[in-house]
Design brief:
Length: 90
Amino acid sequence: MNSISVNQFRDKLKTYIEQTISEHKPIKVTRRAGEDFIVMSAEDWEKEQETLHVLQSSDLMKQIAESMKTHQRNLGHQPTQEQLNEITGF
């Protein structure tokens, strides 16, 4: 993660915002007299929130673990070619 001073961030605000959105990389902004903060795109923040929700849900984590076991044993659902085409839009 890139780290810049609040002065650098303020001077090139538009550039840093465009960079954060296009590269999907948050930027840490440091301040001398106060706490640092992170700048990230709304899309990336929403994805982080979804990930946190899944990780904090024991039921969802159990489902994922069971799915991984099934996948590793090659016992999961095998879609037909027609189903694959429907999913991929071909």
